Amino acid sequence: MKNILNSNNKKWYVIDAKGKTLGRLSSIIATIISGKHKSIFNPSTNCGDYVIVINSQEIKVTGKKSNQKIYRRHSGRPGGLKVETFEKLQERIPERILEKAVKGMLPKGPLGRNLYANLKVYKQDSHPHESQNPELLVYK
């Protein structure tokens, strides 16, 4: 029997994040990466597709979240907690905002880490995945 979950069946999608809302966009990406949009979905397998996100530096949030939403990271040393607002992180590393949002929506454990590898985020409108012939994904 032919394996229907091999990597040959996986599609590549391009999503333009320009002017899109962070939460709505990341929930759509998490659905595609985990394969919930397919009829062959199985929660214990990696049957999702690849997603390329461009223009991540132009993603937006609603309300006062740009000033109030904070991102924390820790160096592992005593007193090594670093705190950053959405605005500061968007200036410094805009890709990390969307990556953290999508990673939080994926399953925890080895499967989630495997699914997370199917996400590629770029801050500009160019990406090095043209040879995979990605389709432009348009949603409302």
The quaternary state of the protein chains shown equals single chain
- The CATH architecture name of the domain at 7-60 and 95-127 reads Alpha-Beta Complex
What is the CATH homology-level superfamily of the domain at 7-60 and 95-127?
Ribosomal protein L13
Mean pLDDT: 93
- How large is the count of helical segments? 5
- Under CATH, the topology of the domain at 7-60 and 95-127 can be stated as Ribosomal Protein L13p, Chain: A
Could you explain the architecture of this structure?
With 140 residues, the protein is an alpha/beta fold. The chain has helices at residues 22-34, 65-68, 86-92, 94-105, 110-116, and strands spanning 12-16, 50-54, 70-74, 81-85, 119-121, 135-136. Helix 1 (22-34) crosses helix 4 (94-105) and helix 3 packs across helix 4. It starts with 11 loop residues before the first strand and ends with a strand. The mean pLDDT is 93.
